[in-house]
């Protein structure tokens, strides 16, 4: 059961601030959340562009998708482009909700979803069927599982229409953005955005306030990606889950991540590594999530950082072999 919760973005499985930033109206944030009893929604971020609105990540649950559509309708502008930072279902399931209302929308993402579909995402369907057949599964949970299964069965609802394969400047819906592809980080390929005008970095799950979601992580690639983020002169950073950060908050989170990975790979007691994370990342962990964080951190040490040598490298190479 615990596994089902932390494997958040498969079938089953923080709290943020509203609009604004360093430059006025640089972005509009629709915060996601990390509930204890169901899968999370990632943050969604709107940017204005000459051809309409750009939305970065689309959440998982119907209520989140609805918020995105309501915002666009209030603004009286079409959603012209979706950018997915990574394929996890708490960031991409809402793509289909948006495409039904805005069929012309272009979807920018890496092709990393293909590796996931080729393997574990489809295998995960069996687990979904078991949970659906189990009378103990609550109805709300069943609805979530059915929604996840429908996108896995119809992967064009998730896939990009424009594949992003390398880093560089891109014009998206007429707006120039720096797009970065981080290979083998939180997923096989994570996409993050830097807007030099607003000095704004939008980094997806390379930063998750309460605990890094390491289910499909390659720890070394992830460390490198955080170094690359730090090398941009951003003033405001929006994580995949949680409130926006200034540079010093990000640097604190980055060093907490590095310490956690190093401890997890060392001979030190697991409890010590979990306590270290909770101490180093304390400003980012709210009281309601303290227990969740403890269990999740221990789970990632067991399953990622302290698994077999092959297990540790599992996500450090292409999944489509
Ligand atoms: Zn996420």
UniProtKB/TrEMBL annotation:
Keywords: Signal
Signal peptide location: 1-16
InterPro entries found in the cross-reference section: Metallo-B-lactamas, NDM-1-like, RibonucZ/Hydroxyglut_hydro
Record flagged with keyword GTP-binding: no
Matches recorded under PROSITE patterns: PROKAR_LIPOPROTEIN (PS51257)
Highest taxon, organism lineage: Bacteria
A Pfam family recorded for this sequence: Lactamase_B
SMART domains: Lactamase_B
The name this protein goes by in its record: MBL fold metallo-hydrolase
Species of origin: Sphingomonas caseinilyticus
